[in-house]
Amino acid sequence: MEALRRGALAEATPLLSPTMVRVAPLEGVAETVGLEAIMANAHRLTADYDIHEVTADGPLLGDGQFAVKFTFDQTHRPSGVRRTARKVTLYTVSGGRIVREEVAYVDPPAA
């Protein structure tokens, strides 16, 4: 969580299974499989944005799962529109690594 709060995604990457599954239907692809494909999707989704701040609230712990609420302060470069986007992600852990993430958007991604 501390790595996510600092925006240090590279520090969190070793905790992700290389075969993890991301379920995020509002992102245009219902399910993405594999860490490489998930990272490519993240790059696609953020390519036109300047991310000013990310806050991560949580984790909310469950049995083999935890949830995190993310809030993004971001500007869409082509339009200059600055907005806040929020999502809740449920992570499933197996063998000490995150194997699945399911994303629910409070504010759907901009088209």
From TrEMBL:
Top-level lineage group: Bacteria
Domain SnoaL-like: 1-100
Descriptive protein name: Nuclear transport factor 2 family protein
Organism encoding this protein: Hamadaea flava
